[in-house]
Specification:
174 residues, eight-stranded antiparallel β-sheet, 8 strands, Alpha-D-Glucose-1,6-Bisphosphate, Chain A, domain 4, alpha+beta
């Protein structure tokens, strides 16, 4: 198995409504992309070390929908869904993302299937030195308030765990 890196994740805020997360992983781009886009592998990395996936639905095509549900270690359910708006294999994925809110009325913000209040995530995969891959996630939150809410949610620790697991998975696929 390939050695995983102790790579540093960088989080910054290039605009009032944007979050940018960058991390270089010690694995080839096509394998990092495979880990990112294969439902059985997503099930293993998406919850980080904070819970267990109960639902991974992916219609991985432009216009296709996705939905992830996990039961967090505290016993509560967390669900997100969205739509893929652009896919360039091994290079870029653009998708909407909505955090589902318990009890949200059908069609309202936070309701399953609703795109109301969605943020837009653009994930890019670039070759880096030594056969590594630099992954950049750029989130357009739509407003400074939503950006700040996401930034203060504990998301940074969760994404750090996700990257560690993705790197391990991609290395194991080599």
């Amino acid at each position: 198995m390939a050695q995983t890196s102790s790579g540093t994740m960088k989080v910054d805020f290039p605009g009032d409504q944007e979050i940018r997360i960058t991390r270089t992983l010690n694995a080839p781009r096509h394998l990092v992309y495979k880990a990112w886009t294969t439902p059985d592998l997503v099930r293993r990395w998406w919850p980080g070390r904070r819970g267990e996936m109960t639902v991974v639905e992916m219609d991985f095509r432009v216009g296709g929908a996705w939905r992830y549900v996990m039961v967090a270690n505290g016993g509560f359910e967390v669900a997100f869904h969205g739509t893929y708006t652009d896919i360039e294999p091994n290079e870029r994925i653009v998708q909407t993302e909505v955090m589902e809110l318990p009890g949200a009325a059908p069609g309202s913000e936070g309701a399953p299937g609703s795109e109301e209040g969605a943020v837009v995530n653009t994930v890019t995969f670039e070759d880096a030195d030594g056969g590594a891959t630099t992954v950049t996630i750029r989130t357009d939150a739509g407003s400074k308030e939503v950006r700040d809410m996401i930034a203060q949610s504990g998301m940074e620790g969760g994404v750090r765990e996700q990257f560690e697991i993705i790197e391990e998975l991609a290395a194991a696929l080599a």
